[in-house]
Amino acid sequence: MLKPQSPPKVLRSMALAILCALSLPLASSQQVIKPENQDIALMGTIRLIHGFGPPGYGEDPKHDAHVSYWALELTDPVSVPCTPTEPKYAKDECGSARRLKLFFNGLELAKLADLPAAKYRDELVLVRGKLHRADTMGEMTRIYMDVSQIQAPTPDGEPARCNYAKVYRLANGTNLKIHAEARTGSAEIGSLLNGTNVYVCDETKAWFQIFYSVAGKPCKSGTPEGLPEPQRRDCRSGWVEKKWINVISG
After folding, report:
1. Pairing mode, strands 66-79 and 97-104
2. What angle do CA 20, 23, 29 make, to 5 degrees?
3. Which of 10, 15, 74 is closest to 43 using CA atoms?
4. Which of 78, 85, 188, 238 is 20 to 30 Å from 107 by CA-CA measure?
5. Domain boundaries of the chain, sorted by first residue
6. What CATH superfamily is the domain 161-247?
7. CA atoms of 90 and 111, how far apart (whole Å)
């Protein structure tokens, strides 16, 4: 995934102060330590945040660029394991955050309105992905998340399900191309026949992220009621244009 480049060293102290302000936990909150770069799930509220970008990231509002991004707001602050360069820098370099900027792999060039977070604005959701500690000003919050899935919470603690669907409307003799990213021109990683069962787990404005069976990697837990979210790891995944998918459940 593309990430912002590191700023000049003279701006590093400013960055730490700004990230600290953006991520400051409530005094009564209890910090939760999560592993870094491992799949986890967090419950929170999706927010569209408006702030300041380069060159000063809020130090000079008159000249700094205005930026907007999707974030997950948590009830309790979260952190990842961290060793400060010196003990006196522990608070600035290893602090926790209640607001996490969300990154979407393969959708770096998409408009905000086309990102998966858009349809959940101001809603309580379950977000799955990997946490990372920020090391550039452009990451905006001291902890950020590479998102793999966003879903509304299910009642009674049941696992979320990806929707059951089928490939349809293909012309005779043609296959549906599966792409690595949700955009035309991205790498083709496979294809599916008309009528193939798939499971829709995420979407953008024009694309579905699907999970499907291939030889040696079957979606064993999938049924017409859907695919339990924890079992999607058993399947192959990719992105396809929405117009070729008929969503049946959900």
Report:
1. antiparallel
2. 115
3. 74
4. 78
5. 9-153, 161-247
6. SH3 Domains (2.30.30.40)
7. 36
